[in-house]
Amino acid sequence: xxxxxxxxxxxxxxxxxxxxxxxxxxxxxxxxxxxxxxxxxxxxxxxxxxxxxxxxxxxxxxxxxxxxxxxxxxxxxxxxxxxxxxxxxxxxxxxxxxxxxxxxxxxxxxxxxxxxxxxxxxxxxxxxxxxxxxxxxxxxxxxxxxxxxxxxxxxxxxxxxxxxxxxx
Length: 168
Description:
By secondary structure, the chain is an all-alpha fold. Helices cover about 75% and strands about 0% of the residues.
């Protein structure tokens, strides 16, 4: 096969990658909405969809690696040198333009996905902290206080705002 055919195959793969990253970005927005709504059902559904998208990306990555190997054999480039910009030197004009567009779109969608993922990560950490702090507060409200001190009955055996009342 010709180098142009391999480069064209790579552009097809990268275009599909862009689509999957866009799909992942959309799913991250859905996850964000589910987190804000505290909907465990929606969060779980979103996680399953993200898992499915991730599996598709991994499968596509394996295909990309096979095509990249073929390109490396044709160009005799070191794998570290193989970039989309470098491939443009080997491509014809329409393919060269397509590579440039794919490079821009891939960079844009990866940055977008990373930003959303980072935001959701922070949101999840805040929600975990809120839940942890709430659990500590609830624990302090239901724990029994000492009724007696060394000198007799404790003057503060009942705290204001207690959830559970003391029984005698």
